Amino acid sequence: MEKSFVMIKPGFLEFEPQIVERLSKIGKITKRQKMKLNNEILAAHYHEHIGKPFYEGLCKYMKSGEVVGFQVEGEDGLVEKIREAVGSTKNPEKGTIRHDFGIGEITRNVIHASDSPKSGQEECNRMFEQINQFGIEIL
Ligand code: AMP
Fold first, then answer.
1. Is the minimum distance from the CB of 86 to ligand 1 under 6 angstroms?
2. E strands along the chain, which residues?
C-alpha cells in the first residue's frame, strides 16, 4: 500500500470537486483538511527548496490563502499514478490537473502531490498527525 499527500494550492479551491473526482479514480481519499499554512510548516514541507531563488516567492504564495490537503491511499504505484494525473511542474500535458485547471504559471501550479512513497508517508504524517506542532489551525 502507498500514501500520497495531495494539496490544492491557494486560489484553486473552486476546482476541488473535479480534482476529488480525478483522485478518487486512482485511490481512496482517507483524510481531508482545509488549512492556512505558515513559515514553519512550509520550511518542513519544502525543505529541499530552501535557499533556491524561487523559495521566498513560493512561501509567500503558499501563505496567501487557504489550501486543502488530502491523504490518498492505494495499491503500490499510487504515488506515481497521482503524479501522472497531476502533470509536470514546468510543462503539464493536456488532460492533467495542472494543465486543465491551471493558468500556466510554475509557482501557482494548482496542486502539490508527493514525489515518492517515502515522501508520501512523511508528508501525510506531518500534515495530518503532527499538524498541531506547527500551530496550524484546521478550518
Ligand atoms: P516540487 O517539490 O517539485 O513540488 O516543487 C515545489 C513547488 O515549487 C512547485 O510545485 C512549484 O510551485 C514551485 N517551483 C518549483 N520549481 C520552480 C521554479 N523553477 N520557479 C518557481 N517555482 C517553482
1. no
2. 2-8, 28-35, 67-74, 111-113
CATH number at residue 126: 3.30.70.141
User: Ligand 1: which residue has its CA nearest to atom 4?
Assistant: 112
What is the pLDDT at residue 137? Answer: 86
106 Cβ below 6 A of ligand 1: yes
Phi–psi pair at 30, nearest 5 degrees: -110, -15
**Which cell numbers in the block locate residue 120?**
508520501
State how far the Cα of 20 lies from the Cα of 64, in Å rounded to an integer: 22
pTM above 0.90, yes or no: yes
Residue 86 near residue 97 (C-beta atoms within 8 A):
yes
Q: How many domains does the chain have?
A: 1
